[in-house]
Amino acid sequence: GEPNSVRLLVRQSIPVFFRGQGASQANVTWSLTRSGGRTFLVAANRGNGYLRIANLALRAGGKEISFGKGLNGYVLGGSTMRWPLPGGVPDPTGQVQMSAATQQGVIHGAVGWQ
Question: Of the four, 1, 20, 39, 111, which is 20 to 30 A from 82 by CA?
Answer without folding.
Answer: 20
